[in-house]
Write a structure and sequence with these properties.
It is a single chain. The chain starts with a strand and ends with a helix. Helix 2 crosses helix 3, helix 4 runs antiparallel to helix 5 and helix 4 runs antiparallel to helix 8. Strands 1-2-4-3-5-6-7-8 form an 8-stranded mixed sheet, with helices on both faces. It is of the alpha/beta class. It contains 11 helices and 8 strands.
């Protein structure tokens, strides 16, 4: 099992394919398997790296105050361990927040960036969504939290058509005994994240990829991000909800690869 030994923890990671590095960073669930629908296609063109965030999957279950900044430093340290000087970067939701930090603080380590289903900072709607999820976690328990999560992430038709696969994936992501304290702290990390006053400093080429029916990070967040980042391109998919990379993977993969390959040829 490939484990990267960080300064203060261990990160499970996988590599697929060869060529220029492409780092994929998942959202709040945190596990690299989120990207299973992308691996086959992306690895035809790139050396794809995925990992389980600290506190999730097979990585260290550190009892710390989680922050997106810590997630970003973990990702950068993983790149160092794997001798990746520069990479394309695709971040989904929380992974897109990681991308914002790295693009500001370490622009030379990133080439082309895709921020999918991203947000700028917690507003009233975003905060209300995560307050509801936190209430489920703390008062009804982790199983209720897990069962409710797809309602925030996936379209109704996708849940209907993939219920068996969804329940299997839930057991793989959260395990039989989820750590409530870590899950709660990771929610805090999202609610505390706000790098809006630094977005104008980003000079990398960025594709901001929103989804019209995303009901967790609505498309207006993508529009705000694209206005704030100088060298950005905004594209909004019509369907697929927050987890469009899973629910409509062919469209998602096509958009991302076209962007990366077009930019690479310039």
């Amino acid at each position: 099992m490939p484990i990267a030994k960080l300064t203060d923890g261990e990160i499970y990671y996988e590599e697929h394919g060869s060529g220029f590095p492409l780092v994929l960073v998942a959202g709040l669930g945190g596990v690299g398997s989120y990207w299973n629908a992308q691996l086959e296609e992306f690895s035809k063109h790139y050396r794809v790296i995925i990992h389980d965030h600290r506190g999730t999957g097979k990585s260290s279950r550190s009892k710390i105050a989680y922050s997106v900044e810590k997630m970003a430093s973990d990702t950068l340290e993983l790149m160092d361990i794997l001798a990746i000087e520069k990479a394309h970067f695709v971040g989904h939701s929380t992974g897109a927040a990681v991308a914002q930090i790295l693009a500001v603080e370490h622009p030379d380590r990133l080439d082309k960036i895709v921020m999918a289903s991203a947000w700028t900072k917690a507003d009233g709607f975003f905060r209300r969504c995560f307050e509801v999820r936190r209430e489920l976690l703390l008062k009804s328990g982790p199983q209720a939290y897990v069962k409710a999560t797809p309602i925030f992430l996936h379209p109704s038709w996708w849940i209907r058509d993939h219920i068996d696969a969804l329940e299997k994936a839930e057991s793989e992501v959260y395990g039989s005994n989820p750590d409530v304290d870590i899950m709660n702290s990771r929610i805090d990390a999202l609610l505390n994240f706000d790098w809006t006053d630094k977005l104008h400093m980003i000079r990398n080429n960025v594709l901001v990829l929103g989804v019209r029916d995303d009901h967790l990070t609505p498309a207006y967040f993508s529009e705000e991000l694209a206005r704030a980042i100088p060298n950005s391109t905004l594209q909004v998919m019509e369907d697929g909800a927050h987890a469009a990379s899973q629910t409509v993977p062919q469209e998602f993969n096509r958009i991302v690869l076209e962007y990366l390959q077009k930019e690479t040829m310039q």
